[in-house]
């Protein structure tokens, strides 16, 4: 197995905000920016947010002449069973490009991107002619590693996230801590063995694998639900929103590590 990861740096120079103009009787702002390669970080904010120094996904605006690291993790994981490439931008806009060979998992990763406002790229091939187990596991391991890389030293983040997501009759609560200590408590009661061709036992295994490499404490609790699809999708939506909350910046921390120990690490 080979695994590589990289953190991509870009400069926010060139992004500009022009004064508010009248459009259809309502005040609106006009944002202009040059073309960027995929994955470049663009902080788009309102004048009020800009005046407070707040950028995209709650991140502090950098000075236009400064260069700082974008919170992007990229991982390539290759084994005899799978070939996985993952790229995640924590300060994205909810773009998803996922092709795993497992249609239901693609649908769930779309939820992670859309509701977390992360840009998520996942390309994977694997021995799904046997079953989905190896691909499901290795994709989650790679996503966890990409999150670990993107978070860096975790300075200034909220660290904790808590969200409850309903989907029709189902409701799932997720609580997480980007503590550096991997732990999963999964209280899902999924009534069927499969959703489409996807083995529902793989839901818990996906989150366990992601927790192991990201160094995350994660609690998932089902509050209600009878439909397997609804329960699983509510879980991913709640996870996405809780992760978004935890990875966003707390401006009052002024870039300090959110720990009384002064450090948050995977070890």
TrEMBL record:
One of its GO terms (cellular component) is chloroplast. Residues 1-28 are annotated as: Disordered. CDD domains: IGPD. One of its GO terms (biological process) is L-histidine biosynthetic process. It is an enzyme of class 4 (lyase). It catalyses: D-erythro-1-(imidazol-4-yl)glycerol 3-phosphate = 3-(imidazol-4-yl)-2-oxopropyl phosphate + H2O. It is found in: Plastid, Chloroplast. Residues 1-21 have a biased composition (Polar residues). Keywords: Amino-acid biosynthesis, Histidine biosynthesis, Lyase. InterPro entries: IGPD_sf, ImidazoleglycerolP_deHydtase, ImidazoleglycerP_deHydtase_CS, Ribosomal_Su5_D2-typ_SF. The keyword Lyase applies. Its main location: plastid. This is Imidazoleglycerol-phosphate dehydratase. It comes from Digitaria exilis.
């Amino acid at each position: 197995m080979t695994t590589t990861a990289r953190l991509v740096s870009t400069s926010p120079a060139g992004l500009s905000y022009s004064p508010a103009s009248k459009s259809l009787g309502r005040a609106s702002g006009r944002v202009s920016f040059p073309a960027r390669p995929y994955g470049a970080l663009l902080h788009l904010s309102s004048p009020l947010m800009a005046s407070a120094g707040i950028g995209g996904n709650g991140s502090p605006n950098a000075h236009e002449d400064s260069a700082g690291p974008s919170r992007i993790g990229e991982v390539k994981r290759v084994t005899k069973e799978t070939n996985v490439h993952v790229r995640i931008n924590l300060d994205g806009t909810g773009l998803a490009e996922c092709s795993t060979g497992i249609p239901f998992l693609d649908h769930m990763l779309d939820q992670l991107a859309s509701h977390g406002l992360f840009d998520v790229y996942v390309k994977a091939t694997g021995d799904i002619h046997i079953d989905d187990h190896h691909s499901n596991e290795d994709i989650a391991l790679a996503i966890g590693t990409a999150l670990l890389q993107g978070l860096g030293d975790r300075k200034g983040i909220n660290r904790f996230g808590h969200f409850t997501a309903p989907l029709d009759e189902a409701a799932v609560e997720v609580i997480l801590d980007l503590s550096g200590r991997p732990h999963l408590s999964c209280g899902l009661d999924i009534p069927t063995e499969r959703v489409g061709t996807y083995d529902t036992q793989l839901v818990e295994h996906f989150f366990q694998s992601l927790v192991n490499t990201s160094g995350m404490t994660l609690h998932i609790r089902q509050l209600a639900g009878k439909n397997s699809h609804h329960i699983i999708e509510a879980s991913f939506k709640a996870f996405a929103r809780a992760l978004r909350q935890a990875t966003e910046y707390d401006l009052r921390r002024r870039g300090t590590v959110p720990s009384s120990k002064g450090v948050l690490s995977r070890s």
